[in-house]
Amino acid sequence: MFEYNPEKHYPKETESRVVIRFQDCDPLRHLNNAKYFDYFFNAREDQVPKLYGVEMIDMIQKYKAAWVVYNHNISYVRPARVGEWVRIMSRLLWFNHNTVVLEYYMTDDSKKELKTVLWTTMRYVTIKEGISTDHQGAILDFLKATTENLDISKMTIGERVKMLKMKLLED
Fold first, then answer.
1. Using CA atoms, how far apart are residues 80 and 20, in angstroms rounded to an integer?
2. Across the chain, which distance is largest between two alpha carbons, in Å?
3. Alpha-carbon span 150 to 138, nearest angstrom
4. Cα-based distances in Å from 18 to 14, 43, 85
5. Is the pTM of this model over 0.90?
6. What is the full per-residue pLDDT of the chain (171 aa) written as tens digits?
7. 109: left (phi over 0), alpha (psi -120 to 50) or beta
8. Which residues sit opposite 69 in a β-bridge?
């Protein structure tokens, strides 16, 4: 279970290095559009416990609530190709009392070329009733410690793609 420590620095971004698998590609040797979701979700699932000591199943069992996806917004910029090593980054961009927006993005291995950006919006709901509920306790502590808190209310994913491309050029 997550326990907030004010003395500790919590990274805002997770990162994984993975290879694009043959079975996940189309006949043009590009990563199949639907497979980007698997790569993104698996990378985050691997990294969150390592970085933050959080097992989501423990939080779900304790608070009897979980996040459910109600919106994906994805921008395919450049194809990921079979056998290519890529970097997958993810971060919580924003949250309020019952909703979070996660950002995932993929680059080439050198982190110079942006491949894809995904925003996933999720609502926090009770397991039993399936109704919205407020973030509380360790959930709220985790969100406060790890969220970027970017003002995305007036930002499009296209604008975010431009921002990330510029950031990659600067780094």
1. 7
2. 51
3. 21
4. 13, 8, 6
5. yes
6. 678 888 889 999 999 999 999 999 999 999 999 999 999 999 999 999 999 988 889 999 999 999 999 999 999 999 999 999 999 999 999 999 999 999 999 999 999 999 999 999 999 999 999 999 999 999 999 999 999 888 898 899 999 999 999 999 998
7. alpha
8. 122
